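Possible regression after last week's pipeline update?

I re-ran a chain I had predicted before the update to compare outputs. Posting the input and the new output here so someone can diff against the archived version. Not blocking, just want to make sure nothing changed silently.
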Amino acid sequence: MPDPETAVDILMRGLMKLHDNPFPPRFVTATEGFLRYVGPEMPFGQRMAFANRWLFERLIVKAMDASPSSRAMLRTTSVTTILEAGIKDNVVPSVATAIANFRLLPGDSVEAVVQKVKEIIGDDRVEVMPKGKVYNEASSTPEADGLGFQKVAKIARQTYDNVVVSPFLLIGATDSRHFGKVSDHIVKFSPVVDPIGFHTYDEQVSINSFQHSIWFFEQLMRE
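New output (post-update):
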């Protein structure tokens, strides 16, 4: 004789609201730099759109939203990764919990994201909070004309043939976050060009790319 609504129903409805209401898009410094640097190298239509973002911003956002990697450059992302409820198949659970992983766009704070999630779910029966102390604020992004970026750009051009070097929002939680208290001008860059299987079985990279990466860092340290 289950009630019309259980803890699982309440939680799932909240999670679906979160899924159906993504955070609004916003162009941060790194993404603006990407459009500015890469735009002139694109075909005419994209080149015109990137050069006139004030006019074509909605089309640019739509195009970037079509890819998970570029969509993550525009907005704080969220994805439910763990669900827990129930202890036995014939006992209605009184509590259901979920863990959602958020990757914060620079400029968004943990506090603001928590508040936004509460507004989206709109149900006081769903408690929203950061999980313990395993969260980090969004990292800062250095300017493209800064010394760090220019050094990395120089070595990248020496390491790889026929490349366009551009600012970019590195998607992923790297160990660089531990250096945030030391500097707010941390350049995040991976010289690996063909990694396979991030966070999955048989994660790998080619020997050639591995050697290139070592050479890149050697030259960077010599600089």
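Follow-up from reviewer: compared with the archived run. The chain has a mean pLDDT of 92. Marking as no regression found.
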